[in-house]
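Before relying on records like the one below, remember that each one covers exactly one chain. Contacts with other chains, cofactors or solvent are not represented anywhere in the record.
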Amino acid sequence: MRYRTRYRTRYGTLLLLLAGSILAVFYISLTNGSFDIPVKDIVLTLLRIHPAADYDLILFEFRLPRIAAAAIVGFGLGIAGTVIQGVTCNPLADPGILGINAGAGAAVVFFMFLTQGQTDAGDLFGALAMPVFGWAGGLGAAVFIYFFARKNGVLDTQQLILAGLAAGSGLGAATLFVSLKMNPQDYEMAAVWLAGSIWNSSWTYILSILPWLLVLTPIVIHKARLLDLYQLGENTAKGLGVKVEREKNLLLLCSIGIIGACVSVSGNIGFIGLLAPHIAKRLTGSRHSQILPLAGLIGALLVMAADAIAKQVFAPVELPVGIVIAIIGIPYFIYLLYSTQKRR
């Protein structure tokens, strides 16, 4: 009993520290940029006390939507990455590595090609259609990978990685081919978006992905216990009465829906689905009911911090968020590969 109380206290402290870190990054992103705004003026503008037109434009049209998009996308990718690692029982599984990001990205680029630049950040049809296209593309990639990764009715984790890499490479080539068929202006937008960027975020896009997360995230958290059971092996889970295949398919569909919605706004941001679950597991243990919320908050913090770095450290040049995260994620991925091989 004392151990459980101490564990809950530690977990609560972790959540508070993460929330405080997110607020700190929020403050830095809101006040700093190419045009710095004093805290006093931000408070007066947000509370609608002597609001200034230029501050309204910067805060409500540029900075707040961008910060909100970074937080939501990071949270969603952290949750989805945790689910995929739990379902596949593979610590190296990641939406980007498995080609799900590539499938969602290819579908969204195809949508851009079909509309020929007729949709923009404020267009409601484009904002609502892009997550659907992203979900369909991610689902198609997942079905392909799942089909080739099964061996004698069982999901083979090694074949899963190989099939994911093959799907990601093929879809990346298809995406490049389609983007080259665009006019120069649309191609430039697609290239920046594919690198992982949230600079063009708007409230319309944020509202378009929120329903996906609000519906699918509670389902995933509700089934967190199943992810714990999968770590014991499929036979053990079946022996405990779990309908393994049905539940796996439901969890994968939920994670693909979250990924598709996030990719439709942020582009192909990789490594968050790999980094966030690993950091969460190191901090809190192996219970997915604690890992999932923690991984979501860590993902939000990572994307928000990467966006702040991309926007300010390299000013006046602005890097895509995906590149900043890759600079952090690639060394960590190499470390994971090395540590996994060492354990074997």
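Residues 111 and 133 are 7 Å apart (CA to CA).
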